[in-house]
Amino acid sequence: MGKKTNNYSLKLGDKIDMVKQSIRAVTRGYKTSRLVTGTAGIGKSYAILEELEAEKVPYIKITGGVKDVGALYSTLCDHNEKDKIIFFDDTNQILKDRDCIELMRAATENIAVRPISYANNKIVRGRRFYAPRTEFVSKIIIATNIKKFKVDPGIVSRTSAIEIMATVEEIFEWVGENLKKAPPYDMPIEWKQEVYNFIKNEIGIHTIKQFDFRTFEDSMLWYGSSIKTDGLDQRGDKNIIVDDKWKSCVYTLYN
Where on the tree of life does the source sit, at the highest rank (predicted)? Predict the structure, then answer.
């Protein structure tokens, strides 16, 4: 028999599109929750936010700060509104703490109204008092770099979790095809192309152990900090001079 071919293998761009499609299942009311896991720095959060904006749904992004089950319960209560989406981005504690996991199991059930409760008689955040039990109607999206097999099976099942994994080569190719979307967003694409080509041709992608949107942004910041202006050119625009020292800094970043 010949070597088997994986007909379901997808490029990273297709995987990102799959994330967006899975988010639409939540924004359009087919699911009450979704967990997206996978390789760090490949644009999971960016894709989710882009889809939430495109779908024009009310949402709140929660990043960090949810350190215990009391904080999680109060967060859910504060944003308990029909059709509103609570997007937990890299708030890994809610997937690690036992009490948080129990609460998230209840909150991610795929039914319209989900009873959730907190074991304490009542909790207080600031001047607000929270009842020990509430009918939860918001939707939940979670993005994390924790691998799916390390997440509580109950949450994985309830959210129909998807995992997006990618190699350094896949990420590099995708960034090259999407330089406009690569951070920093306010830098000209010509600058990004120059840095990208330097990494590709001078450093060599096969020698790099880690490459993602975040490391590329660091590379661009080194490039940006090396730019100087020297008067005006013939068209009256600022005459931009780039100090090549940025190349040594970027090289060090990947070696």
Answer: Bacteria
* pLDDT tens track for 200-252: 999 999 889 889 988 999 999 998 888 765 544 445 455 555 678 889 999 99
On whether the CB atoms of residues 229 and 240 are closer than 8 A, the answer is: yes
Residue 42 makes CB contacts below 8 A (sequence gap 6+) with 12, 16, 164, 166, 171, 174, 212, 213
The yes/no answer on whether domain 12-164 falls in CATH 3.40.462.20 is no
| Three-point CA angle 144, 147, 153, nearest 5° | 95
Q: How far apart are CA 11 and CA 171, in angstroms?
A: 9
Q: Determine the Cα angle at 112 with ends 21 and 105, to 5°.
A: 80
Q: Do 107 and 76 meet the contact criterion of CB atoms below 8 Å apart?
A: yes
Q: What is the pLDDT of residues 47-106, one digit of tens each?
A: 999 999 999 999 999 998 788 898 999 999 999 999 999 999 989 999 999 999 999 999
Write down the domain spans for the chain.
12-164, 168-253
